[in-house]
Amino acid sequence: MEDDHPDLTDLPWPLTGADALREELLAAYADPSRGHHGTRHLAEVLQRLDELAAAGAAYDRTPVLLAAWFHDAVYDGERDAEERSATWAEDALPAHTDPATVAEVARLVRLTEHHRPAPEDANGCALSDADLSILAAGRERYDEYVAAVRTEYAHLPDDVFAMGRADVLRGLTDAPELFRTAPGRARWEAPARANVARELAELTASL
Q1: What is the pLDDT of residue 6?
Q2: What secondary structure letter does DSSP report for 37?
């Protein structure tokens, strides 16, 4: 996995004639109040989707790429951010694509709230894996990610944040598999679990 900053000017965008929407989404991700859930995260998710496809993971490119663009289109630390992101997709996309694609994009965005796609949900498995792939980053990039997440919850005291963050990480790693595609499991399962175990140890030590 590459940890370099991806080129934000060359992100794959599957719609023709919708450049204004693309720019609107990029502006949302570039909001300076964001920590992890900014343009770098968007770029990395898109890059990981390309890596999964190259490794043999099958998914429907247009709805999955659009879902990647919209999955954190709204992000302000509130619980319904995924729902509001999905609603944005439902409002913005009908002018540019067919109803089935719009419905699939919205479904996939909502799925990223819990990252629990069914095994037969190829699109959901690919998007979930790409979104969670940051957990398998090299140690320096992972630590940057953890610090960026903390900035998004700067309003919370350390002990409250640590308990909440630990609950999220346990919820993810209590599943038999973090990653649902075969290439995702092969590439990212072991390093992700090692990173999360290290972070959990640090969080619980601070409580």
Answers
A1: 54
A2: S
Q: Which amino acid is at 114?
A: H
Contact at 8 Å (CB) between 39 and 8? Answer: yes
Q: What is the pLDDT of residues 50-65, one digit of tens each?
A: 999 999 999 999 999 9
Q: Which of 105, 28, 21 is nearest to 59 (CA)?
A: 105
Token pair for residue 50? Answer: 């390309």
Structure tokens at 134: 């940051």
149 within 8 A of 36, measured Cβ to Cβ = yes
Alpha-carbon distance 139 to 119, whole Å?
29
State pLDDT tens for residues 78-124. 778 999 999 999 999 999 999 999 999 999 999 999 899 999 999 99
Q: C-alpha angle with apex 200: 195 to 205, nearest 5 degrees?
A: 135
3-state helix, strand, coil in the chain (%, to 5): 65, 0, 35
Query: For 122-171, how does the pLDDT look when each residue is reduced to its tens digit (9 = 90+)?
Result: 999 999 999 999 999 999 999 999 999 999 888 899 999 999 999 999 99
Architecture in CATH of 10-205: Orthogonal Bundle (1.10)
C-alpha torsion angle, residues 89, 48, 10, 108 (rounded to 10): -10
Q: What residues contact 130, with CB distance under 8 A and at least 6 apart?
A: 45, 46, 48, 49, 52, 68
